[in-house]
Automatic annotation (TrEMBL):
Keywords: Signal. Pfam families: DUF302. The keyword Magnesium does not apply. Coiled coil: none annotated. Residues 57-119 form the DUF302 domain. Gene3D superfamilies: TT1751-like domain (3.30.310.70). This is Uncharacterized protein DUF302. Residues 1-16 form the signal peptide. It comes from the Bacteria.
Length: 153
């Protein structure tokens, strides 16, 4: 199970790191660190919370491998069966969208961002009730983990 306790100092640092922006159903959080350092911090806080990092995909390296350029971008895929399994029990198609995914990327100006889709929206087209308790837990986990990563772990 995720442990969401963040020291007050870490939360305040994350808040100082920059605003949280919502673009439709995508939540974005500024990070003062590089993409790589922010993704490292995200992996660290995910592990400390008791979840599993299943994969880290380096989109920038993929582009470079075929002679193309793009700003740094890494996708971290992680989860916890205690949260994901109930969603898949309610609708097996939730397995198409889980585990959770967080993108850490640099915009055209070099600003690092952490972005994720709000879980209720991710699973919106499935037979999952809007008030499912695991959705609130997923929201809380994503918020706490990404804020901690933006603060450097």
């Amino acid at each position: 199970m995720f442990r969401f306790a963040l020291p007050l100092a870490a939360m305040l640092t994350a808040m100082a790191a920059g605003p949280t922006a919502a673009s439709g159903d995508i939540v974005r959080i500024k990070s003062a660190a590089t993409v790589s350092a922010t993704a490292d911090a995200l992996e660290s806080v995910v592990a400390k919370a008791g979840a599993t990092v299943f994969a880290r995909i380096d989109h920038g390296a993929g582009a470079a491998s075929v002679g193309m350029e793009m700003p740094d971008s890494q996708l971290v895929i992680f989860g916890n069966p205690r949260l994901g399994t109930p969603a898949m029990q309610d609708d097996p198609l939730a397995g198409l969208f889980l585990p959770l995914k967080v993108l850490v990327y640099a915009d055209a100006r070099g600003q690092t961002w952490i972005a994720y889709e709000e879980p209720g929206e991710t699973l919106d087209d499935l037979g999952i009730p809007d008030d499912a308790p695991y959705l609130a837990k997923m929201r809380g986990a994503l918020q706490n983990l990404t804020m901690a990563a933006a603060a450097g772990g």
